[in-house]
Design a protein that fits this description.
flat, mainly alpha
Length: 161
């Protein structure tokens, strides 16, 4: 299970890093659009046409790197699902929320107000509780599935009267 958990954590980290690349790429697209329009960036901050962004998806290296991180993240995630229950693995992806917020604050200069920090703490507590639930849940699942299925040969060979 430790190896599968490590693989899942790699998937989570790659997904979070991919988010940073995507955001940085969209920022480059905004800057390019503003330069082409001959206006200040603040004038187009939330007004870049969707078509322009879509057209830029395949020509902006940072966006391509973000998509690549997502693709590799998905491969690692699938490898982890081979060993982990989906009901355990998928909620752990909530760690990516925390990672993205911290990296956005550190590398993109985004705000990190106190209420957001409290929200992140709640997410971390939830992930911690989920994490410690796994061994007990696995043992209970194994016990519930363990009873042998009786075959006709085991019960005397024929149908029950």
């Amino acid at each position: 299970m430790a190896a599968a958990l490590a693989i899942l954590l790699i998937a989570i980290a790659l997904g979070a890093v991919g988010q940073l690349f995507l955001k940085s790429g969209v920022t480059v697209v905004k800057e390019k659009y503003a330069a082409e329009a001959g206006v200040a960036l603040v004038e187009v901050e939330n007004d870049v046409p969707g078509g322009y962004i879509l057209k830029s998806l395949l020509t902006t290296p940072l966006i391509l790197v973000g998509f690549f991180c997502y693709a590799v993240s998905s491969m690692f995630y699938l490898m982890s699902l081979n060993k982990l229950d989906l009901s355990y693995a998928y909620p752990l992806i909530a760690l990516s929320y925390v990672i993205v917020v911290v990296l956005s604050w550190k590398y993109l200069g985004e705000a990190l107000p106190p209420l957001r920090i409290v929200g992140l703490a709640v997410v971390l507590i939830g992930v911690f509780l989920l994490g410690i639930s796994y061994p007990k849940a696995s043992a209970a699942k194994t016990e519930a599935v363990s009873p042998a299925i009786e075959t006709p040969a085991d019960s005397g060979g024929g149908p029950a009267p």
